[in-house]
Write a structure and sequence with these properties.
heterodimer, A: about 350 residues, Rossmann fold, two-stranded antiparallel ribbon, 17 helices, about 40% helix, globular, B: about 140 residues, alpha+beta, Ribosomal Protein S8, Chain: A, domain 1, five-stranded antiparallel β-sheet, 5 strands
């Protein structure tokens, strides 16, 4: 990029006020004081582009979808104008030899300075044979790229904590990035997928201050993961008043009461959905009437049921062998009854309750 | 299929008084404190409304209490932003929207003039240069 960023933006028809507005929004979502918005604008406007390499492993591309389909393409794209994205398998036009050459050139030219973004978990089972690119295992590729990286950003729950590939029984032996490296600065940006603004926020912080943002004990940026969904939930006052929805279509649900009893994992989930929202600030799961699944927490898939209230034991069926045998016989009967009831409810379009969802 | 066949009925759209959480009231005191600071030291202040647990009803209540002032600024910058003075001079209600019209951030800014309204010296210089060019061509 020639000259300061603000000139490049001006050539693209992006005015200073648009940029200031963007920085104010960015500062707001990073819980920085409003004066930081101005400081960020000044620093970002004069920034040099760092090289960024993005490697996908055991993943569904949902993280890339999340970023590229963010609500204000021109604004999120601004951040991508501020970096030099040298390798991203889903987005780049090059393939085969050229692509791999670009990767190695970027690594060589920016040794020790580039940012490495990783999405997806890394399978260690069968010597990494479960996921290979160009005949090389994910582990091998990651180790090579991590060597000269200034920092690694683990994008999404898979790269951060192992995610769904790691879910019980973890057939591929999937692990997270921080399970492999202990001597590298790592930022975890969990979420399935993570909020687009969070990744751009982390990049903006790196560009503005030249450092990674402050992290918590799970290596997550405190600005976005400092508080639980529950802390910032607009339904929180109803929790405090003891007003709970009991089913998804009762009076309480219609009045927007707390979804705790319907299995909301908000109280134990650290993420920014309640303030950032999704789809361009349109809504987010709780606002749409569904509890939080806790997708940004480690092992969320094995939490014991999305519709079980946090106050219920995670696995009440483990009550000893004798009970299990008796239970199995009863269970068959119950499940037949349940299936009949479920079918009847479906045809009669009856209210679905919690027990139905757990069948 | 008509909409009546769907058993979920949404009770819309403006929640009445039950929507008030009581979280808006303390904000009035904070705004008053920021105004005192502005008068004494000239230091401006901002409250980030999107970062607080406020219900839509709370925001309506707050807006109603602060009232409408004489100045309403509209900024067209990647979506519309409004920077409106409230009945309380020096207190500005700032709303940023994206190109789809959804609210991205909402602030209360306590300042003589909101930061975004001011022209940047560099932009003024560019304006002056193009004006000079225009005059020399006449």
């Amino acid at each position: 990029m020639q000259g300061p960023l603000i000139d490049t933006l001006a050539r693209q028809g992006i005015t200073r006020r648009t940029f200031l507005k963007y920085c104010a929004t960015l500062a707001s979502m990073m819980a920085l004081p409003p004066s930081a918005g101005l400081a960020m604008a000044e620093a970002l406007a004069a920034t040099r582009r760092p090289s960024v390499i993005w490697l996908p492993f055991q993943e569904c591309t949902g993280c890339t979808e999340s970023i590229t389909r963010s609500h204000s393409p021109t604004l999120e794209a601004m951040i991508f104008d501020m970096i030099s994205l040298d390798y991203q398998e889903t987005l780049m036009a090059a393939a085969g030899f050229q692509a791999e050459e670009a990767l190695h050139n970027a690594m060589k030219d920016n040794m020790g300075k580039y940012l490495l973004i990783v999405d997806g978990s890394i399978p260690l089972g069968l010597d990494g044979a479960y996921s290979c690119i160009g005949g090389r295992s994910n582990l091998e590729i990651l180790k090579e790229a991590a060597e000269g990286a200034a920092a690694i950003i683990a994008m999404g729950s898979c790269a951060s904590f192992g995610g769904i590939p790691k879910a019980n029984p973890n057939p591929t032996g999937a692990v997270s990035v921080s399970d492999i490296f202990t001597d590298k600065p790592i930022v975890n940006i969990p979420g399935c997928p993570p909020i687009p603004a969070v990744i751009t926020g982390v990049l903006a912080h790196y560009l503005t201050f030249g450092t990674l943002p402050e992290l918590d004990d799970k290596k997550r940026p405190k600005a976005f993961y400092g508080e639980t969904i529950h802390d910032r939930c607009y339904r929180r006052p109803f929790y405090d008043q003891g007003k709970f929805a009991k089913t998804f279509d009762d009076e309480g649900a219609r009045r927007g009461w707390c979804l705790f009893e319907l299995g909301c994992k908000g109280p134990v989930t650290y993420n920014a959905c309640a303030t950032e929202k999704w789809n361009g600030g349109t809504s987010w799961p709780v606002e749409s009437g569904h509890g939080c699944l806790g997708c940004s927490e480690p092992d969320f898939w094995d939490g014991g049921g999305f519709y079980k209230a946090l106050s219920m034991p995670a696995d009440p069926l483990k009550i000893g062998a004798v009970a299990a045998v008796v239970g199995a016989a009863v269970g068959v009967g119950v499940s037949v009854v349940n299936r009949v009831k479920k079918g009847a409810a479906k045809s009669a379009h009856e209210t679905t309750d919690l027990a139905d969802l757990e069948k | 299929m008509s909409l009546d066949a769907i058993p979920v009925h949404v009770i819309n759209t403006t929640p009445a008084e039950p929507g008030l959480s009581g979280n808006a009231l303390p904000l009035l005191r904070e705004i008053s404190e920021l105004l005192r600071r502005l008068l004494e030291t000239g230091e401006t202040g901002t409250i980030d409304l999107s970062a607080l647990p406020l219900t839509p009803a709370d925001l309506d209540w707050l807006q109603d209490k602060l009232g409408e002032g004489e100045i309403a600024v509209t900024l067209q910058a990647n979506g519309e932003s409004t920077l409106n003075e409230t009945a309380c001079s020096g207190v500005w209600w700032v709303v940023h929207r994206n190109t789809q019209g959804a609210v991205t951030t909402q602030f209360i800014e306590v300042a003589w003039v909101p930061e975004l309204v001011k022209a940047h010296p560099q932009d003024v210089k560019i304006g002056q240069e193009s004006l000079e060019l225009l005059i020399s061509d006449l």
